Amino acid sequence: MGIFGALTTSVAGLRSNSYALENISGNIANSQTTAFKRVDTSFLDLVPQAGTSQQVAGSVTSQSRLTNTQSGSVQSASVSTYMAINGEGFFAVQKPGSFTDNNPVFTGVNNYTRRGDFSLDKNGYLVNGAGYYLQGVPIDPTTGNPVGSTPTVLKFQNDFLPSQATTKISYRANLASYPLTTKHDTSRPGSELLRAADFASNPQVAGTSPPPFGDNTRVGLQVNSKAGTAITGATLLKGASGNAVTNSFTITDTVTIGSGASAKTIAFYDSSAGGSAGSAANTTYLDLNSATVTDLLGAIDTANGNTGTASSVSAGSVTLHTGVASDLLVTSTAGGFAALGLTSPVTVTRTGGGTVGTGQVTGADNQTFLDESISGGATTAYDGSGAPVNVQFRWAKVDSSTLGTGHTDTWNLFYQINPNATGTQVAWQNVNTNFTFNSTGQMNPVIGQLTLPNLTVSGVSLGNVTMSFGTGGLTQFADTNGNVQVNQLQQDGYAAGQLVSVSVSNAGRVVGSYSNGRNIDLAEVSIATFNGANFLKRTDGGAFEVTNESGEALYGKGGSVSGSSLESSNTDIADEFTKLIVTQQAYSANTKVITTANTMVQDLLNVMR
Predict the structure, then answer these.
(1) Alpha-carbon distance 361 to 359, whole Å?
(2) From residue 527, how far is each of 149, 233, 539, 554 by CA, in Å?
(3) Strand 360-362 to 426-430 pairing
């Protein structure tokens, strides 16, 4: 080839380096373009056929080397519909071939892009900055699963989300082992329990037989006599010194047992002062000249009908017993009464009693129920038309293991039916299940779920609703607040709502936010991969087309989607500047070869002159 071959080779070198410079220029120009993939340049030598001893370096040509599989850095974005792909893959998109009445008409030809700056347009399409429309697979709102596998152009209508009736309530909570009800009194065992005898209609589980009335007690404060020692049963009710109460009873003092027409009275006289017992009806008289604390306690037991364990004194403290005949109410303004360590009035209710359980709280018993139960939380449920209903829950402890052998920690759950109930109208409904707990605070047996048949609140029927507690969802641990700590209270119903906005989750799903507060998965973004991703054909706007060399799109093997994010260009400015310097040097060197070859040709021509 000689001199003229050198000239043509240098021209090819200039052309190849110019091509490289063009790619470098494009890379630098697009260094801020979202998800741009730089184009590198490969140089290939062209060697003519020649003998082994006549081979030459040959000429050169250049071609592009794509970097479609090299990701740019992912940056967070403030737009909720922006997205980026972590790993391999491309967004499946289409570009309209035309528009009819401002609505796009698609050609059906798929393109693929890494550019994820999608925004919702006026027609409900997600369109990126280059005008490509996102494709994906719709989601069934009922099951939450994709409908099919073939991606289609996504369009989100500003329609109403139909209402859904509540069919399930998920509930998890800890019930305080000692509930601090309004009526609780730590000095009275069982006072924290719902007492069936306090209700006209026993609200415990329907058919529950009430326990028989049992004795209950009240222990007074520890007090001393005038001798400075703890009082005993032999302590006198009156005395100037020695073993007598510190504040003596007088003949004008009285102690009343019970109330109303059935009340009975204990009165006093002093025989040492010439007094004698009176004859008033329903009155017991004690002689202060000799009466002791035991005498007074015996009179109280008799008046209250206590024929069981007698009231007594131990270690300076008076213990009053109700017996099983009636509750105990003792009132007295006597100073001597207070000297016994008791504060008037003394009210002690018997344990047990009541009627057979009906599973309902009537309006007449509503306040009593509120006083003997604790709140269990509330949730808003919905009927078939989407009308909201406020469902209130309350827990009542009906038995306690602290009462001794034969007793188990047992709770009943109620929901409110009618907040305005009066008289015999039903205010609260028992779910008619006993929730029992063992000594470790775990439910035993485990009740995973139950059905609330025809759940009706304020006249609105929700139908049959399943209430789910899960395994270990209900516990009974000590809680100083004495209340129900609700850990979960959710229901699956909702009112109708209008689509307000859409966003993209990190699970790669387009999520619709509705005016009713619901967030519903609307579609799954399709991620396409290719066996030969670097052989895709580039088009305007950072999009690519399928070629024979790239292979067809494959779905289901791509990377993950990151919502509210954008992928940056993979162009490295510093690297491009370095390539720019090298390309400039190579270009200059080729021009030098042309200059040298031209001089040699001139020298040859001068020989011929």
Answers:
(1) 7
(2) 11, 90, 19, 8
(3) antiparallel
Which pLDDT score is estimated for 452?
A: 96
Amino acid at position 537, single letter: K
Pairing of strands 543-545, 560-563: unpaired
* CA 210/CA 217 separation, integer angstroms: 20
d(CA 3, CA 601): 7
CA-to-CA distance for 114 and 38, rounded, in angstroms? 13
pLDDT score, position 404 = 87
Q: Which residues of the chain have pLDDT under 70?
A: 1, 51-55, 57, 609
- The whole-angstrom separation of Cα 42 and Cα 17 is 10
pLDDT of residue 294: 96
d(CA 573, CA 24): 10
Contact 161/496 with Cβ under 8 angstroms?
Answer: yes
Six-digit token string for 322: 């109700």
Cβ–Cβ < 8 Å for 116, 35: yes
DSSP state of 18: H
Query: CB of 549 within 8 A of CB of 522?
Result: no
In single-letter form, the type of residue at position 244 comes to A
Return phi, psi of residue 426, to 5°: -80, 125
Residue with structure tokens 């139909």? 162
* Amino acid symbol at 45: D
Claim: this prediction has a pTM higher than 0.90? no
pLDDT at 176: 97
